Each structure stands twice: as C-alpha cells, then as structure tokens.
TrEMBL record:
<dbReference type="InterPro" id="IPR027417">
    <property type="entry name" value="P-loop_NTPase"/>
</dbReference>
<dbReference type="Pfam" id="PF00071">
    <property type="entry name" value="Ras"/>
</dbReference>
<dbReference type="GO" id="GO:0005525">
    <property type="term" value="F:GTP binding"/>
</dbReference>
<dbReference type="GO" id="GO:0015031">
    <property type="term" value="P:protein transport"/>
</dbReference>
<feature type="region of interest" description="Disordered">
    <location>
        <begin position="181"/>
        <end position="217"/>
    </location>
</feature>
<keyword id="KW-0547">Nucleotide-binding</keyword>
<protein>
    <recommendedName>
        <fullName>small monomeric GTPase</fullName>
        <ecNumber>3.6.5.2</ecNumber>
    </recommendedName>
</protein>
<keyword id="KW-0378">Hydrolase</keyword>
<keyword id="KW-0967">Endosome</keyword>
<dbReference type="InterPro" id="IPR001806">
    <property type="entry name" value="Small_GTPase"/>
</dbReference>
<keyword id="KW-0449">Lipoprotein</keyword>
<keyword id="KW-0342">GTP-binding</keyword>
<keyword id="KW-0636">Prenylation</keyword>
<dbReference type="GO" id="GO:0031901">
    <property type="term" value="C:early endosome membrane"/>
</dbReference>
<dbReference type="GO" id="GO:0005886">
    <property type="term" value="C:plasma membrane"/>
</dbReference>
<feature type="compositionally biased region" description="Gly residues">
    <location>
        <begin position="206"/>
        <end position="217"/>
    </location>
</feature>
<dbReference type="GO" id="GO:0003925">
    <property type="term" value="F:G protein activity"/>
</dbReference>
Length: 217
C-alpha cells in the first residue's frame, strides 16, 4: 500500500521512535486514517474510539527509519479532558477535520491552539482535511485551510482514508520534519517517549508494521 515509501532500507539505517497523537472532532475520520496508514484498510462504518487507541507503524526515509507510536484519541467532548494525557510528550500531532463540515474545522483550530499552548514547544503539527473524496459537498475551501496552516506553521494536506489519498504522505511529511537527534541529547518530559529515541536495532516484536512492508497491526 505504501507506494510513497522507499522499497528497501539499509542495514546501517538508524531507527528513531516518536510519539504521535491524532486529535479532532468525533467522526472526522481519525481512526480511519490510522487504519489506512497502518493496515492499508478502510471500513465504511468505524466504531467510535473510546478514550484512545494505540498502534505503531514504521516508515523509511533515505538514511533513517522512523517508528511512530500512534495515539488515536476519541473525539467526543466527554473525552476532551483526557487529551493532554495523550499529547503530553508527543513529538508530533495530526489535527483532523472533515472538509464537508465547517464546524470541525473551527474545532481543529481550537486543538491547534491548545497544542501550541500546552504541548511540547517543538511539536510538529500537521493539519489534515479528511474526506477529500467528498469534495462535491465541501464546506471548507482548500485555500482557506492552506492559509491558516501557513499562518500557524503547520503541515497541511487534504486526505481521504477511503481512497488513501495523501494518507501515507501526511505521515511521511511528519517523519521528514521530525528532528533525528542524538538519543543522549534529548529526553522529553515523558521518560519513555524521549525525543528522537534511537532504537539502534528494530524491536524483536510488537504491534507495529515492519518497515516498508505495508501491513502491521
């Protein structure tokens, strides 16, 4: 599924691990984006996430390999108070909105402000306008979102979990922007999610997909 990923990786590649959190209103397609990225699958009727779901996936860059620890948070308002627990110590975030629902874009802006105010100061934030396959019922113009993203130094792509449009690309863009620091130099606020953790060797087992192998869990 991962046409955008290199087909092979050198044995000398360093492997870095980063915590990534997805935020956004309920039903914008956060879980669908993760499912498409990690398993290459799409389910028309996805059950609402309760609290948060955890998955891993690995992507290959030219000289490094990035393993994402992905926290897919619930969008319902009653879970909002739990969000800081998941984005605390995260090196990256994807804020998702539904291009057919202007209210979700407004809510996405609130999430961005919260991340800018409370998350790690160097967090890489991507804005994803999901459901791009439904552009005929668009309520948020691409240019409006692009201007907002530019003004706030966000990565921005319109995505479709259904067709896989730009799903791998948004994760790859984040992987490229994340600093690949010396593991001894950086330790985030959460000990097990240190910035740029160099794993040296791939973990022997886990729920994540193998580098460039597409699938995973």
């Amino acid at each position: 599924m991962a046409a955008s990923r290199p087909s092979a990786t050198s044995a000398t590649n360093k492997i870095f691990q980063f915590k990534l959190v997805l935020l956004g209103e309920s039903a914008v397609g956060k879980s669908s984006l993760v499912l498409r990225f990690v398993k290459g699958q799409f389910q028309e009727y996805q059950e609402s996430t309760i609290g948060a779901a955890f998955l891993t996936q690995t992507v290959c860059l030219d000289e490094t390999t990035v393993k994402f620890e992905i926290w897919d948070t619930a969008g319902q308002e009653r879970y909002h108070s739990l969000a800081p627990m998941y984005y605390r110590g995260a090196q990256a975030a994807i804020v998702v909105y539904d291009i057919t629902n202007a209210d979700t874009f407004t809510r996405a802006k609130t999430w961005v402000k919260e991340l800018q105010r409370q998350a790690s100061p160097n967090i890489v934030i991507a804005l994803a306008g999901n459901k791009a396959d439904m552009s005929d019922t668009r309520a948020v113009e691409h240019q409006e979102a692009q201007v907002y993203a530019d003004d706030n130094s966000l990565l921005f792509l319109e995505t479709s979990a259904k067709t896989a449009l730009n799903v791998n690309e948004v994760f790859m863009a984040i992987a490229k922007k994340l600093p690949k620091s010396d593991p001894a130099a950086g330790g985030g606020s959460a000990g097990r999610t240190r910035a740029g953790v160099d794993l040296q060797d791939p973990p022997p087992s886990g729920r994540g997909g193998r580098c460039c192998g597409g699938g995973g869990n």
